[in-house]
Design a protein that fits this description.
2 domains; binds zinc ion; EC 3.5.1.28; N-acetylmuramoyl-L-alanine amidase activity
Length: 405
Amino acid sequence: MTRILRLFAALWLGLAGLATAQETGLSALARLEPARSAVTTSGEVTEVALGLTQAVPFRAFLLDAPPRLVVDFREVDFSAGRAEALADKGLIGPVRWGRFRPGWSRLVADLSAPAKIDTAVEETGEAPRVVLRLSPVAAGEFAARAGAPSSALWDLPQPAPTEPPHRRQDGSAPLKVVLDPGHGGIDPGAEADNLKEAVLTLTFARALKEAMTRAGMQVIMTREEDVFVPLETRITVARAAGADLFLSLHADALSEGDATGSTVYLLDDKASDEASQKLAERHDRADLLAGVDLDGHDDAVAGVLMDLARTETQPRALRASQVIAGAIKSAHLRMHKHPVQTADFSVLKSPDIPSLLIELGFLSSEADRQRLLDPAWQAQMAQAITRGVATWAQADAAEARLLRQ
Ligand SMILES: [Zn+2]
């Protein structure tokens, strides 16, 4: 409890100190529109509506001692409004808001009584709004619901205060690519013929890093040796690096069907087929088996965040998948019969970094094993992916410059 209080005090001081920078900063993605923001009551229900100039990822949760509602946003400029205008109505007591950490803003409202969040939705379209509905609960029930959900998307190592928020790449700097060799250490991944997926992906990642570096890209790896790296940490590495693109590299085994050839995977909660879904589940299970605590990752509100992230980043990731698959195909390297597929891969859930998972081949296929072990194939594949990434990055940068005008 003391620790939570101290954390909160630190946050509070941080908000006070950073308010000026935040509220005059040009980096905000969205601005609060006071005329469309209100706290209203209907029976026992209190509704908090926040009008925004554009939709941004957000999450809402409750904290205890004292009871508070916390809403985190990526990033909102609150300077047009007054927090007092929303305060002291229904279940909502005093309200404050401001920057939480670079790129993230926070609203904190004291609750006049223990409450639960019935719904937390964001309306997109012409007039984006975040709408939260709260209703009262017994004190015992509140305590059970309170507490900040932990997630790689939010609980990041604090970047240096001078670091500017990450911007979409526009070609003005070398493309930053994070390569993520799948599995490692206690989690060997797929195994066949004395081969370990974890070793193959690392070997290939090194070849790909070399090819990309020669092409002028800046490459960061989530692991450089055969060690275990939790899925969340892989995302954190990409975020800390300010990656423009995240590529997770795998060579799984598939007992289902006779999978062969390379496949590029995009994030989607609906998998292309059962085999893809099993692949994603197996990757998550690997973390559990390795002893990673996944508590608090299934909170309903995270879904809202993911949906929005997808709106922003998914079209870019989709184009990257198509261009990279095309480059592999035109290098006459063996592709899976469905070269671009979808699955719910946790490692692809960075909200603002286009992220793909490439199954280089399948360890369960004899032909694929031969290819994966062949240094000449590795070099051709590395070249093809590098060409695809370069082609995508050029078009992506052109679009970023266009959007800015
Ligand atoms: Zn794998």
